[in-house]
Sequence to fold (658 residues):
Amino acid sequence: MLSKLLLFLAFSIDNALGVRTVLPSDPVMGVRLRIEDRQVILDNGILQVSFSKPGGMVTGIIYNGIDNLLEKRNVEDNRGYWDVVWNDLASGGAGIFNTIKGTCFEVIVEDTQKVELSFKQVWDPSLKSKLVPLNIDKRFIMLANSSGFYTYAIYEHLATWPGFSLGETRICFKLSKDWFDYMALADNRQRKMPSPDDRLPSRCRVLDYQEAVLLTNPIEKELKGEVDDKYQYSSDHKDIQLHGWISTYRRTGFWQITPSYEYRSGGPTKQSLTSHVGPTSLTVFISGHYSGKDLIPVFADGEHWKMVYGPIFIYCNSVAQDEDLDTLWSDAKLQLMEEVESWPYSFPASREFPSCDERGTVSGQLLVNDRTISRAANGAFVGLALPGECGSWQRESKGYQFWTRADENGYFSIKWIREGQYNLYAWVPGFIGDYRYDNEITITPGCNLGTGVLVYEPPRSGPTLWEIGIPDRLAAEFYIPDPNPNYINRLYVNYDRFRQYGLWERYADLYPNADLRYIVGVSDYTKDWFFAQVPRKTSNGYVGTTWEINFKLDDLNTNGNYTLWVAIASATLAELQVRVNDANTNRPLFSSGLIGRDNSIARHGIHGLYWLYGVGIPGSMLHLGSNNSIFLTQPRCTSPFQGILYDYIRLESPPTTN
Fold:
């Protein structure tokens, strides 16, 4: 009785302060486990979760008087599940989709405060071409007095097994379309969503690719004329900590909370899907989205590999019918804070998930020395990833990564690092290039290592003559046009305008006959530099484009070498050719060759993988005065989605002795 009274008083005070609004229905019940022939049920008095046995599919979630938050019209294997897309290296072919179905069920821990379940899929060599060659141990945890449950999984490829590539792995929940109609990804990315029925042929028109549709006859008439495309709701890993769905009818929320992205491939700036029409809620661990095959891990025959994905917290909340929907979002953010403060969790039973005292810390200070600028690396991204070349972290997909941001004085502290060998990497907004600490770092349980003062010297050959853009690995500062009014997503009218559909076609509207020409000192890159160099649509199809940068030189060193730095925020089956003062010369001064499979243009991204090129320009190719031009050609044009998103361009004069 006393514990109930204390909980009630705590809730009442919090509610009065507008802090939390979710009251457990039976806070002292504890966790109960019921095992039946074909299903397993967890119940803590707040919610009840059902799993298929031994498959471990989440078949039902009972909460707030709703008999199932998941889509009960779907078969049981298509409600809540882990899945993979993989390729057999020997046979090749299209990717093979597997939902991860356990063949062995085990109760790992059972008491009134916690139950942890295991549903393990053991690889069967007789299914070599049909089943991914991994042992996968799916775990589910329910705690007492918790309005949700946790899930994580241990993947292992044994040293005697055949090779394969892992194109994607994720957690997916298909929610009830009868209840969930409002999606929230961030404070400024929330909206009433179309129904999945709105994507039926009678209610929409497919646009340039099947994921994008124009709503022509939606159930909710106010959505008519809008575009729906799941890629409009992608986010960077650093920003995917909380997302989910709300039932406006029952004032109920369903959220995926990710307190750490140590187990996601590609580091903090890799982009992945979140939630989208379905209503679907995802946690993606590995994918080639916004990166292509560079982030699809390939495992050789006999290569041993083990990885723990998660835990992820599935959180449910509810408020009274007369309360504002934002209360659910605010409460979910508070729950996220609690989960982050509790990381790394102490309750997972697997030895593969290290506790706090089995992890280490690395601290230090990063400075920047860029010829005439020497300062703290304020806001630098600093992280640990598997050993590799400078910048290799953004293409790394087989190990863990641990990142933080440096403070205003360049100090950083990376906590909760798993035991192992790492390199320390960094990049600094405002400067080009990547940093890597020369020495490998060995993390042992409980260690607290200091790097001392580190100094990053960004690439530079000489003084800056002119620059275009901001070196931040984004193309967001450049001109993003108004979308075609026939293809609007109203969520992005006033911000994140790059997420609108069809912007690649707007280039030809703005430059129907001739390509972009930028005059240094006159043009404004926020108005005069289109955010993506894409093919131009003509009456005869698409053609490659050549952009001109015109500039003057008040002084000229004909015996010296000038340097053009071109930082690219994303490339898709593109080629960068550089010519100087002659756009028609057969052989360019520089060619990148075919680069990139990010597909950021089609998928409404403002960046993908980062590329940096330094192009030497002999002074003899330039002219004294104002009649100089650098031509940037992107000739590949078999698709409207091929192209380059520039991050930053800078011309430097020859090196000086001072």
User: Anything to note?
Assistant: The chain has a mean pLDDT of 94. The CA atoms of residues 88 and 129 lie 7 Å apart. The chain is about 5% helix and 40% strand.
